[in-house]
Amino acid sequence: MTDTTPTRAEHKLARKMKRFENPWMNPKLLWGAGILIGIIVLGLLGRIFWDPELVFTGSAPLKLPPIGFENLRKQAGIWDFPLGTDGAGRDLLALIIIGAPNSLFVGLLASCVGMGLGIFLGFSAGFIGGRTDDFIRVISDVMITIPPLLILVVFQAAYGDVSLTMMALLIAAFVWQSPTRLIRAQVLSMRESGYVQMARLSGASTMHIMFKEMLPNLVPYLFGSFIANVTTSIVTAVGLEVLGLGPQRIPTLGRTIYEAINSGALIQNLWWWWGIPTLLLAVMFIGLLLINLGLDEVSNPRLRKLS
Amino acid sequence: MTSPILTLKDLSIDFPTPGGLVHAVKQLSLEIDPGRRVGFIGESGSGKTTTALAIMRMLAAPGKVASGEIRLGHDKTDVLALSEEDMRKARLGRVSYIPQGAMNSLNPIMRVENQMWDGIVAHEGKTDLAELQRRSDAALESVGLAAHVGRLYPHELSGGMKQRVCIALGVILTPELIIADEPTSALDVVTQKHVMQTLTRVQEDIGCGLILIGHDMGLMAQSVDELAVLKDGELVEHGDTRQIIENPQHPYTQDLISSVPLVGGPSFLSPAVSAPASQKEGPDPLLQFRDVSKRYGDVTALHPMSFALDGDVPQIISIVGQSGSGKSTMGSLMLGFNPPSSGEVLYEGKNLATLGAAQGLEFRKNVQAVFQDPYACFNPFYRVDHALKFPFKRFGLSQGDDHTQQAMEDACEAVGLDPNLILRRYPHQLSGGQRQRLIVARALMLSPKLLIADEPVSMVDASLRATILKNIYDLKDKHGISILYITHDLATAYHVSDYVIVLYQGRIAEAGPPKQVIGDPQHPYTQLLIDSIPWPDVNRPWGTVTGDADSQLKQLQDHPTMFRGVIDGFSLSTAA
Description:
The structure holds two protein chains of two kinds. By secondary structure, chain A is mostly helical. Chain A is built from eleven helices and no strands.
């Protein structure tokens, strides 16, 4: 053995090797998770350090710009309302503090419910096979071709005001198809694998095979599918809100954008009204995308690079 | 004195991995003369394929040639110094590579001859269609295929034909060197013999050098002139094939040669003097087939057959056949994984199809299996002891965690594994041989009455095969477990079994005690199989190519079943 101290290049290589060994520590995943946690923390701390009452109409002066800017009436931003206020006298910072976690909540809830349905149906289809498989496959194939927004617009327009949870459940009805298909395909191939045969030989029950032998190996796929579903759900939810079809009384990012458009914020050059929520949504999507890319590396070792 | 066609000088190849730099090939020096066939033999991971890929400059991404020289041809071209474009021209033109599993390297949506034309056009530029046609027809003819084969798609060819097409593709530009990387590993012995003979004949016609990579000493002995034995990236022995086979110097070479079981040769087993009594209870046979057949759609995988294995005395029944002969179908019928299309499978007199839950568990406990692929048999999510612990508890054998642990350790030691090193590992940290022995240990722990061993050693390195077979044999010999041994390897079946069934296309070709069936085969199919096995014996003539393997096999289909004597405790019949 040579006793030379490792050079910087060797250190760098060692670090890369470590990353290769433990795929959960890849930078994409960490950054993505950091961004999302940041948004949640913003919501939590905001409620403590900022006044959530400021989301109500008329609680602040109208159309104030953010700090360091002037609006058309030459009013400068003040520290009482650092991100400005909207046309109905609501503080934008408070709207974001309340609204951003709400949007994330809708996405997560819808995705959780969708995944649960997907896992159940996917396992049933893959494991039971026969008629059950045909039925589930046809339903999910048909559902995947129907644009969810179309149905939801009709539904919400007829139903009127909905709660956040209700909207999440409605969206969940449109995000179970792809996890179902994914899990069904994996289950079909895993069913013939050696270790499942071994488990059958060991007298394992169907439940044991499904949840103890197969499910752990599906975890990276499930995570990936879950994150993709969160993205879809948020896009759908925001889409509905921007059309004015979301919850009427609960502040969400989508609803804020809807009101900005409705009140002619674009013409009046009130860019902060629609711009800040849009920016926050973009950051949220980037976070989700990074998580998804990171999870891809976890489930597919070929994407991990040494160089 | 001719100059060598390939010179490797102090060749070292490194792979950076998370565990540090791995030296895949160390200081390898070798010369290959024109017209010579050189065999690279060694176990998986010995660096034989890596060396071949380095000659083609096709090493997989992180690997690189650390030092040494590769010189090709009479003009001593430095392969490592060639530009990318020159290297592209040298591939196929000067060195051609027939990869492992070449059957999958044909483009499935192109006609065979178009793929051959692509090779010519890429090296010689635009060529006249008639000329292309003439050359592809000639190349196909040289490997014993009719010219019309060129107009077929790969899926229309059999495995052996595809492999020969790949050889034709490799020689179409008359290279100076052919590298054949385990060209027959996916083929059965009959086809293997035809393909190998085609390859050597074509190589002799062109007069080029040939590197044959493989792990089968028998195949090497019957087809190459020189042997290079590799172990852990080092060349441990190199010389004339005859000289190495008859007088191996390195202990590793000696191991490789002696690990090939021979029909009629000395046995690698040492049977116990008194076999223990079987654990069977009751008068009904342990396992019985009653006119069982299996069809998949229009294909009959297994024609109706009946047998009864009494199990009063532990016995090993071998089921021998090539891929597609129905032997694995028989295995899965016996395990109850598949229902038969007609007839009944009975376990101790009870039909498998109508077993209740408690009886089902009892059947599972008493009929265990060892599968072909040790890599797939462990759930990658769990440590390997999960596979041993779970069934032990499930079948109610465990009397507490300490007892389970003790049973696992005992079973590991019985198959020659160190429990402290093995049990807490993850599957990917163990070699194929270790995993397969663990599966045998698992069977031992459960002490079933019957074990179905489906090709237990075909995916394990040659030097470990004898050990694992010995472990399995001990199950019968020391623990009184009856075994159904499913294999394509007649030589091992000859040694371990009490009774042999030779299957051909779902029909029994020949059956009887191994001394008769394999020692003195009467059925033409059995004879053909035994003739085709390559032996590590340079003096044994391996025969010459006589017609097409496929047509030769087709004639055998309607030959009647031959029964060659009976043994106690096992009866067999085909349906009238």
